[in-house]
Write a structure and sequence with these properties.
alpha+beta; six-stranded antiparallel β-sheet
Amino acid sequence: MDREQMDEFYAVRESAYDALRLGTLIERHRSVPMCQFLILPSFENPVSWDVIRVVSRKDGAQTRLYRSCWRMDLDSQAMSSPVERLKHPRPYNPTLETDWVLVDKGKLEQILARFNAVQIPLTLTTARAGCDGTSFELAVGDFFCNARIGWWCDLPEEWQELRPVVAELERLFESTWERGRS
């Protein structure tokens, strides 16, 4: 990948991250966000798990689990060389995929209720940083009252109280997705 493709790839990556973070592919009509868990690895396809409560006359009340993915593997291939890049449109838009399944509202609310008991500082005295690895972001709450935190690789020592709740949330998302897709 030459310099021009690298610069364009980084711009596409930022656009993809923004789309995942903002949930731009998620139907937002008559819906309220409940939580989001972003997984942003350096060398694999990033994924956003979003839980949205939807109320519609047609479908009634539903709690949906959205899985959105940036197909970084496809986009990096498209920019692998100047010749390969010519085969694709300009400007290049990230390849994003999204779909949803219903999630058990009761199980989800039990996990989210555990966040009420968590007490962590919002700022840290020392922050970890690095180049490669996986970044994570967790957002909880709705439009009017919400919080978002992010970390690189492992949860900071000051946030270890979150570890079991985040792990349980991720297990619920993955198992729900597997059951709903089969």
